[in-house]
Specification:
The chain has about 220 residues and is of the alpha/beta class. It has a single domain, classed as P-loop containing nucleotide triphosphate hydrolases (Rossmann fold), CATH 3.40.50.300. It has eight helices and seven strands, in the order αβαβαββαβαβαβαα. It has a seven-stranded parallel sheet with strand order 3-2-4-1-5-6-7, with helices on both faces. The protein is globular. The structure holds adenosine-5'-triphosphate and magnesium ion.
Length: about 220
């Protein structure tokens, strides 16, 4: 799901109907301008979790690569439904949650729009010095805006295990920012294989996802708050 940065030029707020703008659906923005940090993986899995909880979920795919939209299109029909915002049924469609998968390179006005929409912002960070450094300015921008927009922000260590060098580096990196680490999600083909079938971890038979699900516990509780 990686590739060259591609930011949608159309402000996505304008794609929301009047009813959707007024609708108190909870909006979760997944963002990090660094390409390949795990935004789409996190977005589709969060959407999958919420749908499996009986919530009505829409995904807004802001990336021109349309990986999240492709995932929705591939999703088996017998699984809990997730719609893309583009395909949702306009005024009549009131979703409980909107999950926004954002593109690499999101910045400026489009970043501002997305932040204003979101009650929760999750920033996936990959385990390399380069990724940490590339995420530094972005996390600072988010942290500076969070009081004004009354949103909560958390970080997820992607392709990372707790108590490893990478995890300690991330903890040190965040020590002064007061941003919580919501989860460490280890590197595994479970995410990759599930995505090929339009599935999230939460759609898999328990025995296939058991080890991964433990790592999601804190993040899922944070989402419910
Ligand atoms: N926990 C994981 N274990 C194994 N592979 C992972 C994991 N998380 C992400 N990946 C893989 O890493 C790659 C990048 O992830 P993803 O596409 O989610 O990043 P992204 O931030 O959306 O990328 P882009 O900036 O290009 O949109 C993908 O091939 C994805 O399958
Ligand atoms: Mg992506």
């Amino acid at each position: 799901m990686t590739g060259s940065p591609a930011t949608e030029s159309v402000p996505y707020c304008s794609r929301l109907t009047a009813s959707q703008r007024k609708n108190p659906m909870k909006t979760i923005l997944i963002a990090n301008p660094k390409g390949g940090s795990g935004k789409t993986t996190l977005s589709v899995n969060i959407a999958g979790y919420l749908a499996n909880q009986g919530q009505r979920v829409a995904l807004l795919d802001l990336d021109r690569q349309k990986s999240a939209s492709l995932w929705v299109a591939t999703r088996p029909r017998d699984l809990p439904e997730i719609v893309t915002l583009e395909s949702s049924r306009g005024e009549d469609c009131l979703n409980d949650y909107l999950v926004i998968d954002s593109p690499a390179g999101l910045h400026g006005k489009n970043l501002g729009h997305a932040i204003r929409l979101a009650q929760k912002i999750i920033v996936p960070v990959s385990p390399s010095l380069f990724d940490l450094n590339a995420s530094r300015d972005f996390l600072k921008i988010l942290n500076d805006k969070k009081e004004a927009h009354k949103c909560q922000i958390g970080v997820v260590g992607m392709r990372m295990n707790a108590r490893t060098h990478a995890a300690i580096a991330l903890e040190n990196f965040l020590a002064e920012s007061n941003l919580p680490i919501l989860a460490y999600l280890r590197e595994t083909q479970v995410y990759v294989n599930a995505a090929f079938e339009g599935k999230s971890l939460f759609d898999l038979p328990h025995h296939l996802a058991e080890r991964e699900l433990e790592q999601w516990e804190f993040l899922l509780n944070w989402l419910k708050k």
